[in-house]
Every structure is written in structure tokens, then in C-alpha cells.
Amino acid sequence: VYGDVRKAVEHQSGIILEVHQFDCQRANQQLYNAFSQDILFSTNLNHQNIIKIYDLQVQNAKVQLFKEQTGTPLNILTKLYN
Description:
Blueprint: E1 3-9, E2 16-23, H1 29-43, E3 53-59, E4 62-68, H2 74-81
Antiparallel strand pairs: 1-2, 2-4, 3-4
GO molecular function, one term: kinase activity
Protein name: Kinase, STE STE11
Keywords: Kinase, Transferase
């Protein structure tokens, strides 16, 4: 496991966010590069069907990605569409 996901509330707006924390030290360079490219690509997208990325922070070899909360957990979607 390279990271975890938690929920957070942005105090000014009350928006519920997902905070994805990724531990760069535990990942190999290829995985880190793919993750970085995905983040850079995603931050430039603006569409109603794409999850919005609000912020990205890097501290002590950990990347925190603040994203719009998804409506349905991935494990449930996987069961529905497999």
C-alpha cells in the first residue's frame, strides 16, 4: 500500500473533500512518475463528469491530493459493472 484516502471538510465552504495521501518513499520511480503525470493532467481538466482537484501539497516525501468527493465508493462501482 502506497497511501490512503480520508475525508475532510473545507471550513469556509463546507465542501466535503477526499484527501489522498501518497507516500513517495514506498513507491518505485516508475509509479511515482505515473502518479505525477496523472495529477498534472487531471488538474487541467474542467468537466462536469471529471472529479475536480482542488489542491496538491507535498511535505516530507508525502503527496496530499485534495479532490472532490465521489458519490459512490469504487468497490461498489466495481461490483455493479463487472
